[in-house]
Automatic annotation (TrEMBL):
<keyword id="KW-0472">Membrane</keyword>
<dbReference type="InterPro" id="IPR011110">
    <property type="entry name" value="Reg_prop"/>
</dbReference>
<dbReference type="Pfam" id="PF06580">
    <property type="entry name" value="His_kinase"/>
</dbReference>
<dbReference type="InterPro" id="IPR050640">
    <property type="entry name" value="Bact_2-comp_sensor_kinase"/>
</dbReference>
<keyword id="KW-0812">Transmembrane</keyword>
<protein>
    <recommendedName>
        <fullName>Signal transduction histidine kinase internal region domain-containing protein</fullName>
    </recommendedName>
</protein>
<dbReference type="GO" id="GO:0016020">
    <property type="term" value="C:membrane"/>
</dbReference>
<dbReference type="Pfam" id="PF07494">
    <property type="entry name" value="Reg_prop"/>
</dbReference>
<dbReference type="InterPro" id="IPR015943">
    <property type="entry name" value="WD40/YVTN_repeat-like_dom_sf"/>
</dbReference>
<keyword id="KW-1133">Transmembrane helix</keyword>
<dbReference type="InterPro" id="IPR010559">
    <property type="entry name" value="Sig_transdc_His_kin_internal"/>
</dbReference>
<dbReference type="GO" id="GO:0000155">
    <property type="term" value="F:phosphorelay sensor kinase activity"/>
</dbReference>
<dbReference type="InterPro" id="IPR013783">
    <property type="entry name" value="Ig-like_fold"/>
</dbReference>
<feature type="domain" description="Signal transduction histidine kinase internal region">
    <location>
        <begin position="765"/>
        <end position="843"/>
    </location>
</feature>
<feature type="transmembrane region" description="Helical">
    <location>
        <begin position="722"/>
        <end position="744"/>
    </location>
</feature>
<dbReference type="InterPro" id="IPR036890">
    <property type="entry name" value="HATPase_C_sf"/>
</dbReference>
Length: 976
């Protein structure tokens, strides 16, 4: 609920009013930025067709339902944040007037502008709209600051098509039968209409304001504000019906509001309330002093809304006009009241307060103050009772006093410390309850009691009841002692007040409600269970005509004495200033209620009760993490563990926090309703299906509203269908069987292949080591070393031996690994080729060509696959040549395999085979067959297919080129 500040404002009388007369107080609520309003400066207010109140501010617009503000700005679709005026048409659209001149309106939860509605495209030529009128067929006519008329027909926006040369504001106002104004008044500098020379202008009313026909004219025709005067305007004449100077209002009028027979005037300095203006009353009340009033609005419920420049929005609930309020802001000494009574003969209301102050209010609404108890400390006026003619008996914390209501003189009767209650017997004898004693004035005292005496009630001239914090007692004057009275249930009660009514004793307790006793028997008990406002009773007041008023800390309860039943409760929800009630007094039709926050008085039989059910609306729908538009049908695919929430609201401007909701999710009202104070109805993890959500609401003391229905369809996903679940279950069982069978077979095959693999690997590794290096290479290398030594080239021989040893160590290390990196393989081949060049006297050159893509990965290949091919190329292709040869080794990535080509320009494959010895052929065939077999084994385990192909270039279409090309695809492991 918005934070509401209650201001009790009192009016000053002007002109014909007596300067000391009292104005009616009004309780005014203020809404500001802290409550959710878009800005403290509000230019205008309007009520739409649904009942929402809209406010125009410099930072957007606010839509208010009585409890929550919903703010809209440019990000929500406004053409500009600075909205200066509003207009609501009959189709439910709310139009926004902005300084940029672009048109926009709100309709069905969407703001329409030229960005999303082509019908609003319009060249405003830097002029903005001032007034709006509605014509036939829902056509809207605007008047802009260039005094041009703009038409909107729902399809497009254009300049006026009226065909009149004088089409201006006067034209629209003259033809009021064609153009209905969407604002309550117009500001004009002059009433002179050049196109209507026959129009009469009357600066004073032509008839009495009480004339029903004249009042009807004012309500049905345009109202023109001319500085500080008001005119009723028609094509025939303009008649003044208000002149501010006559009422002490000299400032220009900003806005007005007609409220039944009342008139509201807003200026730059204050708000003026002219109660009964159209009934001829001459009263003006100045409210909201030093406030710049920008607009006034009376809503459909009769509430008054006042917008201000910099001070937010003020709201006067309609029911507050039925109440009058007094406190320290409009005449009383303080806001806290302890007792109240009235001398009907002299028409003097007596109001007892703290600090020993007695306030009197006479028939002329004149307040006077008297200091009755001048002692220090607590000296509140606790009790006021009539005493004979023209006198009142006043009991304070420190004694008894007599006050003459005719002469306004007071006199002390008896000093009594800690007085609690006073009562007067039929013969005028005064009895007092004070702390731990009972005093029969000028007769006797029963003192030193071991209990706290709180109340006293006289039965007749000689007998009375005494209430204490320890039960009920009875006393007669001739015995002068307290006797326990009543049933056992009353013996230990803490009694607050007593009232003897027509043979029955009514007992108000501190925490048990009301007991009714006849004789010594309790015949009735009334508590909160029976509808009492509170079980804490603070005072009982009997009006003498059958009604007992119980003042409690939660309002006033009215009891029918004859039927001993509670007829109604009156609380702050009904208009009281506070629920802490100190006293009650009834004067014919007027009921006075003293509270801790002031005095409230009103016609007891005409308290307004708003029984009209509230308007309920769907605010939004949330499903999962998404929010959807407020539509009456919601369909969505099921989301796992997603919560469905429907948020509702009601348009209630009085006591919005007391709104109750009831909902039913089955669509069957016989299954019962769930009652809640929350406007959010959640349904966690809503399962697929069709639902009907029914919601209704009621406000304070109203009936239930019409039911709002929401159809909800949560669609199942395919796997939630019965047939899909059956298929999935069957497929799952089959899949489990297939997988189990496959796993068992794979385990058996893997064990078998693993055994075979280990055996073959061991054999192949042995063959690889055997065939990795040609024994002739080792033998010839050692011969080369010997030759170098003989030729005295010891240093070159040592280098050769060092490189040879390194190569042999590298070869042995690689032979132990399943995979080596491509960089290691190239380094090994390079060292090998360098030794071969030395051994063959540098009779050939070589080159490695690597594809760029190889640099992006780390490539692993099986060891000792490329070296035997390179060795064959040197020994059997290049070595037999008589001239220098060339060897090229190319490496590329092809379909996740390493493509390696060894290309030489030697004697060729066929020629080499023809000149080889049988031993060499056997060695060569063995080396190549080992490579092929290794590739086949690798394929059987990881699925990669290797290939080895030997090409004689001369015979294979390479022109006249000689030599051998060996291509091999090697399975690899690739890593980033």
């Amino acid at each position: 609920m918005p934070l509401i500040r209650f201001l009790v404002i009192w009016g000053l009388a002007f002109f014909y009013c007596v300067t000391t007369s009292l104005a009616q107080g009004l309780m005014i609520r203020n809404f500001n930025v802290k409550d959710g309003l878009a800005n403290a400066t509000v230019y205008a207010a309007v009520q739409d067709k649904d009942g929402f109140i809209w406010f125009a501010t410099p930072t957007g617009v606010s839509k208010f339902d009585g409890k929550r503000f919903r703010n809209y700005s440019k990000k929500d679709g406004l053409t500009d944040n600075d909205v200066i005026k509003l207009a609501a048409d009959s189709k439910g659209r709310v139009w926004f007037f902005t300084l940029n001149g672009k048109l926009s309106f709100y309709d069905k939860s969407i703001i329409h502008s030229e960005e999303n509605d082509s019908s609003l495209l319009f060249n405003n030529r830097s002029h903005y709209m001032q007034y709006a009128f509605e014509g036939a067929g829902g056509i809207i006519w605007f008047l802009n600051t260039n005094n041009r008329i703009v038409q909107y027909n729902g399809k497009k926006t254009t300049y006026d098509k009226l065909g009149a040369s004088d089409a201006d504001l006067f034209f629209l106002m003259r033809n009021e039968n064609l153009f209905r104004p969407l604002q309550s008044s117009f500001h004009l500098e002059s009433l002179h209409d050049p196109s209507n020379p026959d129009q009469k202008i009357y600066p004073v009313p032509t008839t009495s304001l009480q004339d029903p026909e004249f009042l009807n004219r004012i309500r049905s025709h345009a109202i023109v504000i001319l500085k500080n005067s008001l005119y009723s305007y028609s094509s025939k004449d303009a008649i003044s019906f208000f002149n501010g100077d006559e009422w002490g209002i000299h400032d220009d009028i900003n806005h007005i509001c007609l409220d039944n027979d009342n008139l509201w005037i807003g200026t730059q300095r204050a708000l003026y309330f002219l109660k009964g203006y159209f009934k001829g009353q001459r009263k003006v009340t100045r409210l909201l002093d030093n406030h710049y009033i920008t607009s006034l609005l009376k809503d459909r419920d009769g509430n008054i809304w006042i917008t201000t420049f910099g001070d937010g929005v003020y709201h006067i609930p309609y029911k507050n006009f039925y109440f009058s309020y007094l406190d320290n802001t409009n005449g009383l000494y303080s806001h806290s009241i302890f007792s109240i009574s009235k001398d009907k003969k002299n028409d003097v209301l007596l109001i007892g307060q703290n600090a020993g102050i007695l306030n009197t209010l006479d028939g002329n609404n004149k307040i006077r103050q008297f200091t009755i108890d001048t002692t220090s400390g607590r000296n509140s006026l606790l009790s006021i009772l009539p005493r004979g003619t023209d006198n009142a008996l006043i009991g304070t914390d420190n004694g008894l006093f007599n006050f003459n209501t005719l002469t306004y003189k007071w006199a002390p009767l008896k000093a009594i410390k800690m007085l609690k209650d006073v009562d007067v017997a039929p013969n005028g004898k005064i009895r007092v309850a004070a702390k731990n004693q009972v005093i029969a004035l000028d007769d006797y005292t029963i003192g030193d009691l071991d209990m706290l005496v709180t109340s006293i009630a006289c039965i007749n001239d000689s007998a009375y009841y005494v209430g204490t914090n320890n039960g009920l007692y009875f006393c007669v004057d001739n015995q002068k002692r307290l006797i326990p009275a009543g049933a056992d249930t009353l013996r230990k009660l803490s009694i607050k007040d007593l009232k003897w009514i027509d043979g029955s004793l009514w007992i108000g307790t501190s925490d048990k409600g009301i007991y009714v006793m006849e004789g010594d028997k309790v015949i009735k008990h009334l508590s909160t269970a029976q509808g009492l406002s509170s079980d804490i009773c603070q005072q009982l007041y009997y009006d003498g005509v059958g009604r007992l008023y119980v003042a409690t800390n939660h309002g006033v309860s009215v009891i029918d004495v004859k039927n001993k039943a509670i007829t109604r409760n009156i609380t702050s929800n009904d208009g009281l200033m506070s629920d802490d009630i100190r006293g009650v007094y009834a004067d014919d039709d007027t009921l006075y209620i003293a509270t801790s926050n002031g005095l409230c008085y009103f016609n007891a039989d005409h308290i307004p009760v708003d029984t009209v059910p509230p308007v309920i609306y769907l605010n939004n729908i949330r499903y999962g993490d998404s929010t959807f538009l407020a539509l009456n049908n919601f369909t969505h695919l099921y989301k796992r563990k997603a919560s469905f929430e429907a948020e509702f609201g009601t348009i209630v401007f009085d006591l919005p926090d007391l709104v109750e909701y009831q909902y039913n999710f089955s669509g069957d009202t016989t299954s019962g309703w769930v009652t809640t104070m929350s406007n959010i109805i959640p349904f966690p993890d809503l399962q697929p299906g069709n639902y009907k959500l029914m919601v209704r609401a009621r406000k304070y003391k109203s009936t239930w509203s019409q039911t709002l229905n929401l159809d909800v369809s949560i669609l199942p996903r395919w796997y939630q269908q019965w047939w899909s679940r059956g298929i999935l279950l069957l497929a799952g069982l089959l899949l489990v069987l297939v997988v189990l069978r496959y796993i068992v077979r794979r385990i058996k095959q893997a064990e078998k292949r693993k055994t075979e693999y280990n055996r073959r690997i061991a054999e192949l590794e042995a063959k690889a080591l055997t065939n990795q290096m040609n024994p002739h290479f080792i033998f010839n290398s050692l011969n080369s070393v010997q030759h170098l030594i003989l030729e005295k080239e010891e240093k070159q021989a040592l280098n050769f031996l060092s490189d040879f040893a390194t190569l042999m160590r590298q070869m042995l290390n690689n032979s132990r690994k399943s995979y080596i990196s491509l960089e290691e393989e190239i380094a090994f081949l390079t060292r090998y080729l360098e030794l071969e060049k030395i051994r063959f006297a540098h009779s050939f050159t070589y080159k490695f060509i690597l594809e760029d893509a190889l640099k992006d990965y780390t490539i692993y290949i099986p060891p000792m696959i490329i070296q035997p091919i390179v060795e064959n190329a040197i020994k059997h292709g290049l070595a037999p040549k008589n001239i220098s040869g060339y060897l090229e080794i190319r490496l590329e990535i092809v379909d996740d395999l390493l493509y390696c080509s060894v290309d030489d320009d030697g004697i060729g494959w066929d020629k080499s085979n023809s000149i080889k010895s049988s031993r060499l052929i056997k060695h060569e065939s063995t080396a190549l067959s080992v490579i092929k077999e290794r590739l086949q084994i690798i394929k059987s385990f990881n699925g990669s297919v290797g290939k080895l192909e030997i090409i004689d270039k001369f015979k294979s279409g390479f022109g006249n080129k000689e030599g051998t090309l060996v291509e091999i695809l090697i399975p690899i492991v690739k890593m980033l």
